[in-house]
Amino acid sequence: MCWRVRQSVQTICGWPTDTFAIDYDGADYRDPPHTVLLFIPGNPGCCSWYQKLLLEAVKRLGRGFAVRATSYAGHGVGSNIVGSENGLDNNSRSNAIVLTIDGQVEHKIQWIDGLLTTDYFHETPRFVFVSHSIGAHLAQRLCVMREDILERTDLLVHLMPFIRFDPCQAHKKTILSTVAHSPNAAVRFLWTASRLASKMPKSMLDKCLKYFAGVNDDEGRKLALELVCQPRFAKNFLTLGMEEIREVPERHDDESLRIIGRYCDTAMLFCGGPDHWAPHFHLEELEALRKEGKLPNNICTEYMGDLVHDFVVHVEMVEPVVDFIFRQIKSKSPPPSQQAGTSPSDKYQLIGRRQKIRSKL
């Protein structure tokens, strides 16, 4: 099969943003895709780290599927993407889009709206969201806020979902919470570290990333080298990360999960590590809530102890995740709203939930 990858920089919410698209390009099949995988990465939000993963997944799924992926606003390489070191160099774009969860959610909504109005899709492409880490929280938020997007979504696939902040070790939670509530000092420290890194020989940094950080993917390590030498990127990355710790709920957002469950399935993959962002006991609590009837039965969970949270930069860990994505998409059931419709009371609860979320913006 012949697949074409197109990388581009799109201006979304005033911020130039790295994106890529993967489409089948064989002479034997020219129809538009019936299902589009929409990918939202974790933080640091650079989609290019995941290109190999998504290319392998869509190759296995075959014709009729396509991929669209976006980075976060303010996350990438170059001052046009991350902003200038001394502040904004363009009055038409807002820091809030880059530095807050609400801003990043709005950024992803505008990205999807742009796809629907400018891409070559036919009128009713079905969506499958694929997300990693905090990207799962962003995907849930936008689906609850935008009923029209949720209605055309068949499945949410969350990889190591950071959808609640409750690490498996109490002291880790204390340390991370303390740092998150001292943002100025933390940002100054990382800014200084990034400046120092930018003055080091690239060969030395490369060895540190490969042998000490365990980043054994050559392309992934090349991107990481560019990122760590940008103080403004360091500010964007850490400021958003600290807001994640402050804003992500400490318990599962069962209300959002129930709303989404009325329209589509959700599949979640948890890993070993131990993973402080999506620990195994989060999976156990999801299962318990489902058995108690507090969550819908169309939430699927799976655990792979040999994987780690940053699996994407470890070459040997990519294939098991590709297999998980493939299995979940191929085995998904029709959306509940297509099976029996959605009751007026469900619609009312969904609208009320969207209004509550919008009131925070």
Strand fraction? 15-25%
What's the story with the biggest beta sheet? 8 strands, mixed
Q: What count of helical segments does DSSP give? A: 16
Q: Looking across the biggest beta sheet, what order are the strands in?
A: 1-2-4-3-5-6-7-8
Q: Which class of secondary structure composition applies to the elements?
A: alpha/beta
Radius of gyration equals: 20 Å
* Shape call: globular
Number of strands: 8
Give the low-pLDDT segments: 333-361
Mean pLDDT: 87
Order of helices and strands: EEEHEHHHEHHEHHHHHHEHEHHH
Measured distance between first and last alpha carbons: 44 Å
Q: Helix proportion of residues, in percent?
A: 40-55%
Describe the structure.
The chain is of the alpha/beta class and 361 residues long. 49% of the residues lie in helices and 16% in strands. It has 16 helices and eight strands. Helix 1 packs parallel to helix 14 (315-331) and helix 8 (183-198) packs antiparallel against helix 11 (231-247). The longest helix has 18 residues, at 101-118. Mean pLDDT is 87; it is low at 333-361.
